[in-house]
Design goal:
Blueprint (H helix, E strand, L loop, with lengths): L7 H16 L2 E10 L2 E10 L6 E7 L7 H12 L3 E4 L12 H12 L2 H17 L3 E11 L1 H11 L6 E5 L8 H5 L4 E7 L7 H13 L4 E6 L23 H18 L2
Parallel strand pairs: 3-4, 3-5, 5-6, 6-7, 7-8
Antiparallel strand pairs: 1-2, 2-4
């Protein structure tokens, strides 16, 4: 028996229907924006296999600038079903490998708290405007300098459901700032991190306790600064080292925080 041939057009339609979702994947694109006269460029990541609006997550880089590590975290979040935006806190293309230069750039931003928050808010606004983002379900994560930047957003009353910080500096909010905090905050800290003083931790936790704000403080025994960054050891800075368990466990707990707060 001779089987009828499938017409070329029909075959093409079948292949298109079957292969469409198979070829869908996480997409990224650079987005240029401004804070005043400063030109910035962040990276958006999303899964184009999904449709409709979904929660958005802001990703704030370490003091080195917007690098592949921060962009990689944005991609991970996109793979989980979120729309993620890795913002730029320094300016388009402003990135360094030198600790002294990184310290200078971060210090310049931190020296003016209002400007610091305004720069971070500019990135959050870009995330809010994305067509697939549910602006009522937003979160922010940050590493080192980026973690303290996320806290500054919370202290400024940003409409966030959750904030997760990883080996972050922990600025102490005033009573008024603490009262404005809306998100639930998870802090992931290295117990042996010599860059963050115990007095700083005590002041930070005391302010949130007094304001009766929901937060979780997770301290990993034996861990130092930058415990989530695989190549932290290569920086040649004493007190910075990757820890696989702390990295994976903190990411797991962050996912649980998002499942609870972003639904």
């Amino acid at each position: 028996m001779i089987r009828p041939m499938i017409r070329p057009l029909a075959l093409a339609l079948v292949l298109l229907t079957v292969s469409g979702p198979l070829f869908a994947a996480v997409q990224t694109k650079k987005i240029a924006y401004k804070d005043g006269d400063v030109e910035l460029e962040g990276t958006l990541a999303w899964d184009d296999a999904k449709s409709g609006k979904r929660p958005g997550v802001l990703v704030v880089h370490e003091w080195w600038g917007l690098d592949d590590y921060a962009r990689g975290r944005a991609r991970q979040l996109a793979e989980m079903g979120y729309v993620a935006f890795a913002l730029d806190m320094y300016g388009k293309g402003k990135l360094t490998e030198h600790p002294a230069e990184a310290r200078e750039m971060a210090t310049t931003i931190r020296s003016n708290q209002d400007a610091w928050r305004k720069r971070a808010m500019a990135g959050l606004e870009i995330l809010k405007k994305q067509e697939h983002v549910d602006s009522g379900k937003l979160a922010a994560i940050g590493y080192c300098f980026g973690g303290s930047t996320c806290l500054q957003l919370a202290y400024a009353g940003a409409d966030l459901k959750a904030v997760a910080t990883f080996h972050a500096a922990l600025p102490t909010p005033t009573a008024e700032e603490a009262s404005k905090i809306k998100p639930k905050i998870d802090v992931f800290h290295g117990a042996d991190d010599k860059f963050i003083m115990e007095s700083t931790i005590k002041a930070f936790r005391g302010a949130l306790d007094k304001a009766d704000k929901p937060y979780k403080f997770v301290s990993y025994a034996g861990c130092v600064h930058s415990f989530t960054v695989p190549d932290a050891d290569k920086r040649g800075i004493e007190g910075m080292k990757y820890d696989k368990h702390a990295d994976e466990d903190s990411w797991k707990q962050m996912k649980e925080l998002f499942a609870e707060t972003l639904k």
